[in-house]
Amino acid sequence: MTFTEKDEALVKESWDIMKQNIPEYSLRFFSIILEIAPAAKNMFSFLRDSEEVPQNNPKLKAHAIKVFKMTCESAIQLREKGEVVVGETTLKYLGAIHLKNGVIDPHFEVVKQALLRTIEEASGDKWSEELKCAWSVAYDHLAAAIKAEMKE
Ligand code: HEM
């Protein structure tokens, strides 16, 4: 698939909506992750020891923002260069932190589904197949780069 200017604009537009309410959408994002994969709870330091997904937790928000923002940056790179290039230091760090925390390939699919559902809820009647596809493609490229680093 060629990543068009329209695809990039769609991704940016939904990230702009998300940014306006990070506490709510990051909470939704993690709630959906745990709905799909309850066992993932034990991997996250900020979920492990609490009964419920904690509200306004800085680490939870940081991870949600990273996933959304880096996917958005990947969309920009896909449109500009036709590929996603994560800086070497960042990629090394991402590979190491996920390996250390016990993340395996299927988890990336769980996070993808949670990401798409959160965007669907946030974008209301702006949601479309095209929008879904643009986020999916950008996320898949980013996830592939991290997964490859984890196998190094
Ligand atoms: C930590 C990014 C996917 C689980 C981190 C950190 C970053 C990051 C930057 C360092 C801590 C921080 O700044 O918040 C990403 C990105 C992803 C991704 C960009 C996908 C595109 C995943 C997936 C899982 C996962 C699929 C597993 C379901 C974790 C865990 C930590 C972590 C358990 C340690 C957090 C803690 O306990 O404090 N991730 N991540 N991540 N990530 Fe990811």
UniProtKB/TrEMBL annotation:
Family matches, as CDD domains: class1-2_nsHbs_Lbs (cd08923)
InterPro entries recorded: Globin, Globin-like_sf, Globin/Proto, Leghaemoglobin-like, Leghaemoglobin_Fe_BS
GO BP term, example: triglyceride biosynthetic process
Localisation per UniProt entry: Cytoplasm; Nucleus
Gene Ontology molecular function, alphabetical: heme binding; metal ion binding; oxygen binding
Coiled-coil residue spans: none
Superkingdom of the organism of origin: Eukaryota
Pfam family, one: Globin
Domain Globin: 2-151
A GO term from the CC aspect: cytoplasm
Keywords: Cytoplasm, Heme, Iron, Metal-binding, Nucleus
Family: Belongs to the plant globin family.
Protein's UniProt name: Non-symbiotic hemoglobin class 2
Species annotation: Beta vulgaris subsp. vulgaris (Beet)
